Structures are given as structure tokens and as C-alpha cells.
């Protein structure tokens, strides 16, 4: 490793702003270093806090402040062509290494990719790097799934937020990935015990990444990594394509096509735990009698003898095989709600799982935990990081298929917050022990059941060819987990590499607010039409004939466009392209499109602008670049970018637009 010298000026330009003073007395030192074959360089400022700024040509694309790093030492050139700075206080250092700087196939862009690594982190310190969210009015995307899912995501708030899949805030998907409208991506490696600070009192308009060896991570570890990557491309679209290629990956296959075309019908929101053989039969009969199609009927919560038994309660389901056979005769496949827990009153399964060592334990060997259907310390969580435990669980589900005629499953949970505090896992091929391993292991194990199942959590599992369900939505119009967050969560999941999104129940789940009214229900359905799938529980015939008629109109419309959705799913497998994208995808430089949160695209050709405001019968619609036909009056043609003000949208109308020349089926004349 060599220290900087003037002879290296072609790679490193040192600029001192000291007002004629000696360097030792200078309050601020600025250094610039440039990577070969790139127009991206780093401007390093040393004052009370170390700060570095990423420059693309003459434009600043991101400023990062290091909360806990002080150095007045020499910048060193590493043997790999990177640059390293060592702390004055301890042995820690920060190193900038060039990963690549070249035109990357599949992105259409030159990409400069830099790896930033802190090493020799001292026990008790919490290195924190803060990104400026307000810089030059940039917009930010991706990050965690949230209950209040704002879009763009620079409005989110996080305070000492452990970045693992968890129950709190509906945080079921936690990709360590962020993207901004200047074409900058951030990706944090899984080995980092990552906490977030965003828009706190101390960090307004900042996203701060903090490495902290504290729960829920293994705080006993004597070392901690803090490694993240920054890549700069020509725009956000090219940057995301690079992230898919380099970090996120792409699915290996597509989910079941019948689930794409026809609705899932779940017992949950309508019946909650009052499910039974009689209820399921009545539900199925009403679906058919009212003229609706289906992909499957899903039996949700409270079918078991006890939670974790994985056997049907005879008082509710006296002959499950007869029920599933009858449902097949009616044209239904049957799926079943499954969770990865065993409650203490489920004595036989509870004892067997403990005896076999198939449950997650803490570092004291205690396996007791809680989930939403148990009291504190009254449940066990199956440890899917152990292959034998995963196989034991899977074989018990196979019995449900063989003996009871269940076709497939809805897999709930998977978040780490349902595990015992301070969980202990055996070493795996994933590297450093982390609770992230649990979510990965769970969803990968259960996804072996095939293509017409659903999961709801994920972390680094974009390869799975299954639907990922949006966490339960509430039956309201607003940002508090209501209709406004349906579109934004769809976009958030797609830009985290999960294109096979299963929206939650149409109309929400009817929790604190009670069931949806007719208006909310129908507007929710309209918002779902150009999403990958439909899922009903509340039913239109509980309102009136108009609700039935409108619901049929839009379920038929979804089925009509299903071949295009299938096409997009196959494209996602080939290229990793999202299925539903924000409007700026068509023109990443369009600053208006960057801020739109209540419209979305299906592929590049369908623009949906559903009404998401209570009582509204018209809305303003923004069309990005391109030529667009009005989907409700195909003779009307618009050239974008353009605002259409006061587009008429009575209760039976979904505003949508079709790109000129679009064909639903590639073979269509």
C-alpha cells in the first residue's frame, strides 16, 4: 500500500483550502480522487466530520457524511487501485475500491461501481454514514416495505430501526437497496448488522446507515463488517437494471397462470376465524351463483385442532377430503393458510418439535416465543435454517395434501420479530450468523410446493417463482395502510426485485375500521385491475346489483389483459425487468413523473390512474412521454408528456391509457 504522492496527480487531485495557513492548522481539507475510465470522482472533505461527495462530471449526485470518523492522515493508494483513509482515533479505516467502470450490457449505460468498506471496527462504536435526501431535489425509491408506504420514499421516518424483516410497520421485505433519480444506487451487504436513521431530529433529510452489534443481531460477535456499494449510472432506470444484474437477481420461473388470470377467494376478511365446512361450501356456491371465476378458494385462520397441529378440527371440518373433492367438482382448487409456529397447548406437536431440536432457540437455549395468535412465551417457531427441521415441517404439509386433498398453501409470517429474542442459529453457507437467514430459509423451503402458493416476507429471495403477498391492508382511504398505500407498496416491491406481487384483499381486511363500504371496495378493485392478480374476500353481492355488475366488469378486464401480464412475467425471468413500474420508467429524466404516487404502469404499455380519493368522480392524470389512447375511449389520442385535468371517473370507471400500437397478445393481428 502506498501513500499519496504528487506524482499520482493523474489519478488523484489534492486541493488544499487553508487560506495560506499550514495544513496542520487548516479547518477543512478537500481531496479529490478519480477512478480510471470513468467520469465519476469522489470529493473528500475533512472538517469536524468527514464527508465525501460523488460527482458525475461536474454534477454532484450524492453527499455522504460520516458521523464517527475523524482523520487527518494521508490518503493511501491501495494495491488494488483503491483509496484508503485511516482514523486518527483508532485502527479503523475507510476504503474506496473500484469494482467496475464500463458500459454494462443490459443497462444501456456506463456504470461506475464503488465498494466502501470500514474495517477494524472497534467494539462499542457505531459507524454511521448519512446520505443527503434533499440534495438537488432528488427523489428516492426502494428500501423497506412499510405500513405508511410513502412514494417516493424520502418521506419515511426510521429511528434506530433494525433492518430485518419484522412485524413492526409491516416491514416484511427488507432489501438493503436504495435508488435515487440521479441514477445512484446504494446496496448494503447482508453481513452488516444494519440499523437505519431517517428523518429523525438529529438526521433530518438524511438516510443514515449504521453498523451496530446489537439485538436482533448477534451482539456477541467480536467483529463487525460495514460494507456497502454505490453505483452511478446515467439515470435511475439504468441504475436499477444494474442493481438487478449485480445485487438483486431475477426470478427463475413464473407463478401459476390461473392465479394471474382469475381471482383468489379467501375466507379471511369476510369470515375471520368463523371458518368451517359449511361456511366454505356457502362461500364457493355464492361465487359460482353470482357468475365469478376463480383460481382457488383459500381456507384461512382457525381450521386447526390447535395452532401448529396441522390437523383439521373435526367440529369444524368433519370430512375435509369430501369437502375438497366437492370443491374440485365445482371448479375450485383449495389452498390452506399455514404459519410456522406451534402453540404450547398443541402438546404433541410442541413436545415433538422440541425433542427433535427443530425450533429456534435463544443463546440460553430457550425456545419460547410469541406471535399474533399466542401469548408471550407460549409458542415455538420452526427453525428453517436447519434442513432436518424444514423437511419435518414440509412432510407434515404433504400429509395434508395426500389425506385431505389440499392443493397448495398460503404461507404467512417469516419475519424475524416472531423469533425468541437473541436467536441462535447454526452456521450456514450464507456466511456470518444473522436473523436474515431465517426469512431466507423459510420462504425458500416452503416455495418448494410449486407455483400456486403465496408468501409474504422476503430478503434476498427474488429468485423464487411464486407470488409475494402485500402485508394486510386496512379498510381506509389514507396513508395509514389504506388504499393510498396499495399502489406505492406495489411499486416498492417491484423496485426491490419482487415483480410477482399478490395484492392483499380487495377492500382491505376490515380490522379497526370495519368492512369497506361500496365506494371504497369498488375503487380498490379498480386499483387492482392492472396489478398481477386479484384477491377477494369481501364480496360484491353483499352490497347490491350495481356492485356485482361493476365487479364483473373489472374482473373480466383483468382476465382480458392476463396474457400481457404473463408475457411480462416471462420477461422478468429473462431480464429481471419489473412488471409494474412508476411513470418515470418511460422517461427517467421526467421530474413530474418522478413524484407521481397514484398512477402506475403495467409494463411499458398500460397506464393506470385509479381514483383513490373518497367521493371523487374525476381526477387529474399525468401521461409521460409517448402516444396514448384513452382506454375508455380508444379514439382519443394524447401525446405525452401532458396533464389531463378533470378526467371523468364515475364509480364504474377506471381511468387508464394504452400506448399506441399495443397488442395484448403478441400474435394478435
TrEMBL record:
Domain of life: Eukaryota
Residue ranges annotated for the Glycoside hydrolase family 31 TIM barrel domain, each copy included: 266-566
GO-annotated biological processes: carbohydrate metabolic process
Entry keyword annotation includes Endoplasmic reticulum: no
Gene Ontology MF, one: hydrolase activity, hydrolyzing O-glycosyl compounds
InterPro entries documented for this protein: Alpha-glycosidase_related (IPR050985), GH (IPR017853), Glyco_hydro_31_C (IPR048395), Glyco_hydro_31_TIM (IPR000322), Glyco_hydro_b (IPR013780)
E.C. number(s) listed in UniProt: 3.2.1.-
Domain Glycosyl hydrolase family 31 C-terminal: 576-661
Entries under Gene3D superfamilies matching the protein: Glycosidases, Golgi alpha-mannosidase II
Alphabetical keyword list: Glycosidase, Hydrolase, Signal
Signal peptide positions on this chain: 1-20
Family: Belongs to the glycosyl hydrolase 31 family.
Protein name: Uncharacterized protein
Annotated organism of origin: Drosophila willistoni (Fruit fly)
Lineage: Eukaryota, Metazoa, Ecdysozoa, Arthropoda, Hexapoda
